[in-house]
Amino acid sequence: MIIGKSELLESKILNEKRTLNIYLPEEYNALDTVKYPVIYVLDGGKKEDWLHVAGTVHFNTQPWIARFPRSIVVGIEGNTRRRDFTFAVENTDFIEKEGFQKSSFPQYGGSGKFIDFIQEELQPYINQSYKTTTKKTIIGESLAGLLATEILLNRPNLFNDYIIVSPSLWWGEQLLLKNAEQLLKENLKKKVNVYLGVPNREEDTKMYLEAESLYNILRNNKNTNIVFDYMPDEIHATVIHQAVYNAFKKLYPKTTYQ
User: How many CB atoms lie within 10 A of CB 17?
Assistant: First the structure.
C-alpha cells in the first residue's frame, strides 16, 4: 500500500528546495469534481510527524467512522526547524537561561520568511496542484507550536483550525505571549478553532504555565473557539501523537454515526 508521495517545491523566498510529503484520500480522483480540506504538518518529514498524522486522518475519515471530511495531508520536511520556526530577536542570551546552549541554535529568526513561504508559495502550489477546498488546518508541536502560534496571532487568515501542541513560547523571553492579546485584537477578524494541548505539568512547569497563559488570552477573544487539553500521562517527547488524535476528537466531537 502506498501511503503518500514526496515532491520537491523550489522556493524563491527561502532560496532552496523543500520536500513535501503528501497523503491523498483513497478515492482521490483528479478527474472528478470532489474537493478536499488540507491539513498542513509543520514537522512534516517521513521520520517526523507526517506519517502518523496521515494515519490518524486515514483512520478518522474511514466511512464507518467519518469523524471529519476526508482530507489531504501536506507535510513540510526540513532540518532547519530552529531557523524556520523562530522569530528574530535582538540577542540570544535567554537561550542559556532556558537550559539550552547558544550553539544549538546556529541559525534562528527565519519565521517571517517561512510564513511568507507558506502563504505565497506553498498554499498556492497545493491549491493549483490538488483539488482543495478553502478549509485549512495547521499542526505544530514544540518549536513548530511556536510557529503555529505566531501565524495565529499575526496572520490568522492563513488557516481555519490551529492544532498547537506544547508550544515553545519561551523563545524571545515570551515576547509572542506578551503581545498576544494586542495582536489578536489587531489581526483576528474571523472565527478560528484552536486546540491547545499540553503534557505533564511537573515535567516543565514553566512551559505549562506559558501555555495556560496563552489559553486564557485566547478564550477571552470572541473569535476563538478554544479547547485546552491537559494530558498528565504524556511528556514533551510523547505528547504529539495523543494530542493530534485528541484534537480531531475535540474539534469534531461527533462522528457521522453519533
Answer: 10
Closest to 193 measured CA to CA, from 160, 145, 219: 160
Q: Is the pLDDT of residue 81 over 80?
A: yes
- C-alpha grid cell, residue 143: 518549536
Share of the chain above pLDDT 70, in %: 99
Angle (nearest 5°) at CA 8 between 7 and 9: 120
What is the DSSP code string of 87-111?
A: ---S--HHHHHTT--GGG-SS---H
Nearest-10 crossing angle of helices 171-187, 143-154: 30
In angstroms, how far is CA 6 from the centroid of its own chain? 19
C-alpha cell recorded at residue 105? 541554535
CA 23 from chain centre, in angstroms, equals 16
What is the distance, to the nearest Å, from the Cα of residue 189 to the centroid of all Cα atoms in its chain? 20
Q: At 187, which amino acid appears? A: N
Distance between CA atoms of residues 181 and 69, nearest Å: 32
pLDDT of 1: 65
